[in-house]
Amino acid sequence: MQAAVMYGGVVVKGSVNSNSTSLAVCFSRAQKGRNTKQLSSSIDFSNTNCQLLSSSSSCMPHRTSCFGLRLDSFSSMGTELTRSSLFRSRPIVKALASGGGEGDVEEGRPIKSVEDVNYVVPPQQQQGKASTGTVFPFVGVACLGAILFGYHLGVVNGSLEYLAKDLGIVENTTLQGWVVSTLLAGATVGSFTGGSLADKFGRTRTFQLDAIPLTIGALLCATAQSVHTMIIGRLLAGIGIGISSAIVPLYISEISPTEIRGALGSINQLFICIGILLALVAGLPLAGNPIWWRTMFGISAVPAVLLALGMAFSPESPRWLFQQGKFSEAEKSIKTLNGKERVADVMTDLSVGSQGSAEPEAGWFDLFSSRYWKVVSVGVALFFFQQMAGINAVVYYSTAVFRSAGIESDVAASALVGASNVFGTTIASSLMDRQGRKSLLITSFFGMAASMLLLSLSFTWKALAPYSGTLAVLGTVCYVLSFSLGAGPVPALLLPEIFASRIRAKAVALSLGMHWAANFVIGLYFLSFVNKFGISSVYLGFSGICLSAVLYIAANVVETKGRSLEEIERALNPTI
After folding, report:
1. Is 29 a residue whose pLDDT tops 60?
2. Secondary structure of the chain: what % helix, strand, coil (to 5)?
3. Could you list the residue ranges that cross the membrane (predicted)?
4. Can you spell out the DSSP letters for 466-530?
5. Read out DSSP for 59-71?
6. Torsion sign (Cα): 260, 265, 271, 276
7. What pLDDT score does 303 carry?
8. b or e along 71-102 (b: 16 or more beta carbons within 10 Å of the residue's beta carbon)?
9. What's the Rg (C-alpha) of the chain?
């Protein structure tokens, strides 16, 4: 008997043997008006895992949606599929007998009993737009982690001088460097740990675990009576923000509808910038209250607790649930995030994305294999360029730089820089899904190179000496604006998009490990390099790194706007 299946953008055709539990099919991802890749497979319904063996051809299908098996159509033609394994909770491909009409399309859900099979929904109901508003509260909860990321990075900017006096390390610049950089060392560890935790326990549970070091670290810093306690607190807080840096963009990318994923992904960077700005603004009372620095560190425990509580009510990532075989829970999560109209479509994408590969979760060494290293190296390189371009040198030490340039209100000038970061990231959010990721990256790094060149010249040319203070602020603001338009928000958004699902969490963690390692080096050695080579030479070096980034991105980065994670994965990994 001949059968045709139209399943959420996947066309399945084949034949059913009435004496067998196998369905020979071919299916392809439907894209209107273009040839698409087609897979020919055999589905064995006696196998609860429904293994598919595929080969390639091409076809031009018409998109219609359905999901599961239409048993009554087969029965009417003398065919009966009643194997008990068919009714176990897992994704099932619905079949439409060749004699059926186009309206005989069924809504998708896990089939657990015969009663689950016999219902019909018009195909147009399967293709409704996502209810995007329901995603925002959960993105907001996740972004508490991004706020803490930015806050812990920026809190030391204005407070370092005062905590150094309180803890008796004013003359010891090495210990001051460790107070700054221990956070980054902890974040390096946390970023690697975050990927494994997210794979094992899920995204929401990992957020809750992450609140523990964030809370304890904040309280230790606030109550420290010695530099050793302070360093331990910074280390724990660093582990916490390292985990956050890995799972916030991962979670947001996996719960966001394709059409607004770019905008929501850039919100992560926006909240990091808000966190930095809050830290800089929090430092304004320091001049009148030297022990205010303890309050600055202590209040960061509040959003950490709110993060843990909020995640108790947030849905788990549907993609993670699907990978774990928890299909019913994945459907509930999709319904909560996108509305019931999108359940079948999203489950289709997840199902097609997993077809042809029954591989287990990737190990760390798989990231360095010839199959994955090319795309993984792009992620590592983007974060290397992002950090070695000097952004955190600006974040950590802008107050000191402005002071050396003769700016009297140095903390206020640093707050202006933080506000510029927030403004630029807000603009980037509106451009992400219109201009694309790659063009924003190139424009951003080019602007950063020009700004760093201006800063370098302002400290070198004697003719510009009378204007050095003004140029220092102008160049820094332009640099931060350029950074926030692309180099800041895009890497964290792009990485979860370009990595295959089986390596996504670990590959993001590895890339963020490079982020924190480079960040650690900048934080620890920036002042030493400035003392040895001069601020002008250091800024000139940053400008050169930015230009190198432009060339690398032009040659190696792919555009991902407007494509689902599964479509991107199949484009970058044709064997999947």
Report:
1. no
2. 70, 5, 25
3. 135-155, 175-195, 231-252, 264-285, 291-313, 375-399, 439-459, 471-495, 507-527, 533-555
4. GGHHHHHHHHHHHHHHHIIIIITHHHHHHHHHHS-TTTHHHHHHHHHHHHHHHHHHHHHHHHHHH
5. E--------S--H
6. negative
7. 96
8. bebbeebebebeeeebbebbbbbbbbbeebee
9. 27
Return d(Cα 184, Cα 100) in angstroms, integer.
Answer: 62
- Between CA 505 and CA 508, with CA 507 as vertex, the angle to 5 degrees is 65
What is the phi/psi pair of residue 83, to 5°? -60, 135
Joined tokens for residue 99: 């004699």
pLDDT of 375 higher than 50: yes
Q: Measuring CA to CA, which residue among 192, 1, 522 is closest to residue 13?
A: 1
| 575 membership: H or E segment, kind and range | none
User: Over the stretch 293-303, which tens digit does the pLDDT of each residue have?
Assistant: 999 999 999 99
Each residue's pLDDT tens digit, 520-536: 788 777 777 888 888 88
Taking the mean position of all CA atoms in its chain, how far away is CA 321? 17
Distance CA 85, CA 462 (A): 82
User: Distance between CA 515 and CA 194 in Å, rounded?
Assistant: 14
| Nearest alpha carbon to residue 569 among 375, 360, 399, 400 | 375
pTM: 0.63
Instruction: Show the tokens assigned to 273.
Output: 């910038």
Residue 356 phi, psi (nearest 5): 80, 0
Nearest to 342 by CA among 65, 93, 10: 65
Give residue 125's region: left, alpha or beta (phi > 0; psi -120 to 50).
Answer: alpha
In the chain, the largest separation of any two C-alpha atoms, in whole Å, equals 93
pLDDT of residue 492: 77
What does the block give as tokens for 433?
């899904």
The pair of three-digit structure tokens given for residue 43, joined into one six-digit string: 């589905």
Least Cα distance to 89 among 118, 70, 68 occurs for 68
* pLDDT tens by residue, 167-223: 999 888 788 878 888 998 898 889 888 878 988 899 999 999 999 999 999 999 999
DSSP per position, 269-322 = HHHHHHHHHHHHHHTGGGGT-TTHHHHHHHTTHHHHHHHHHHHTTSPPPHHHHH
What count of other Cβ atoms lies within 10 Å of the Cβ of residue 62? 9
Structure tokens at 542: 């940053």
CB 444 within 8 A of CB 485: yes
**In angstroms, rounded to a whole number, what is the distance separating the alpha carbons of residues 108 and 327?**
11
Eight-class DSSP state of 16: E
What is the spatial distance between Cα 84 and Cα 16, in angstroms, rounded to a whole number? 18
Q: What is the 3-state secondary structure (H, E, C) of 239-273?
A: HHHHHHHHHHHHHHHHHCCHHHHHHHHHHHHHHHH
Neighbours of 552 (CB within 10 A): 17
Residues 430-450 pLDDT 10s: 777 677 788 899 999 999 999
Whole-number Cα distances in Å, 450 to 389, 425, 475, 479, 547: 12, 19, 9, 8, 9
Helix (H, G, I), strand (E, B) or coil at 10: strand
Contact yes or no for 117/83 (Cβ under 8 A): no
State which amino acid sits at residue 141.
Answer: V
